[in-house]
Every structure is written in C-alpha cells, then in structure tokens.
Amino acid sequence: MNLSGTLNAFRILYNPSLCKPGLIIDTFNHLPVPINKHIKAVVVDKDNCFAFPKENKVWCEYENKWELLKKSYPGRALLIVSNSAGSNEDLDNKQAKFIEDSLGVYVLRHSTKKPGCHDDIVEYFSHHNIIQDPSEIAVVGDRLFTDIMMANIMNSYGVWVKDGVVKSNNILSRLEKLIFSPKE
C-alpha cells in the first residue's frame, strides 16, 4: 500500500489543482523532446508509462522516443522514480541496479513513495548541479494522484501520459480519468 499516496490524496479535497497537469499526452510516444526550453531535468515513472507494468525494459513501440529522451537529457538529468524500483520494497536495490544497467538511466533511491519523495528528487538534481530551481524539472507519468501531484507539490512541470502501455483496470486510475480527463 502506498501510504504517501493515500495521505496526499486528501490534499485534493482542498486543492484539486494539485492534480492538474501542465501537459496531457496520449502516450509516451507523444512526449515532446525536448519538453520545453526551461526544462533541465526529467523524472519518468516506469510502470505503464514507458514500460509494461512490472517489466524492466522499454516498451518496444517507445524505444526510439526513449533514446531521444536520453540524448536530450543525458547523464543524471534523466531519472527514473518508481514506487517499486529504488523504494524500500526493492531489497538491496536489486531491481534499481538491474534497470540502471539495462536502460542506462539512474533510478532514485527513496524511502517514501510518490508523491512524498519530492524532496529527494529536488535534492538529487540540485546535488548533481542539474537544476537551480524545481521549476526546471518535468515529471512524466501516468498517474495524476502520484506523478502529477508530486510535480505540482514541487512547483515542477507535470506531463500526464493519459494512456499507458496497457489500459489500467485500477480503480484509482479509472477515477483519475473520469474526473480529470478533458471533455471531448
């Protein structure tokens, strides 16, 4: 269970704009790269954003976009933040190390799940002299209540991947889309 996500979800009751993305894209392939001229660092969620849930490789249809993102935000400017890999549930950081070796991108080590690890992200990019201000960070993810809320808490730029690799049957994911999807 994601206690951080559950507790932070109550913040939506008094500030619904915390879940408002700066940009909505259909799929990871629709991500503009570079994201915009002010963005110096990018956080990406893994599961159902650029990878099939619980798999540690880039979804085949997104490989070209992934390589372009790595080229545009090299080294420590691109960071994977997952509620599985790199979290306390990842014993000895085995999954994080495997992802780093196979994808060539660092995975944040954090003790609090999203959106509660926002200070760890800002510290990571500041420590590596990537950013001067959290507004220079983009957070790309498929969940409004975690990824986009975290971006807004940090005063960063949230990019919502509306349709993940697979359609989610998760009740919270369906609720997010029901409440926050733009009306056609």
UniProtKB/TrEMBL annotation:
InterPro entries recorded: HAD-like_sf, HAD_sf, PGP_Pase, PGPP1/Gep4
Single annotated GO MF: phosphatidylglycerophosphatase activity
Pfam family, one: PGP_phosphatase
Gene3D superfamilies: HAD superfamily/HAD-like
NCBIfam families: YqeG_hyp_ppase
UniProt name for this protein: Similar to Saccharomyces cerevisiae YHR100C GEP4 Mitochondrial phosphatidylglycerophosphatase (PGP phosphatase)
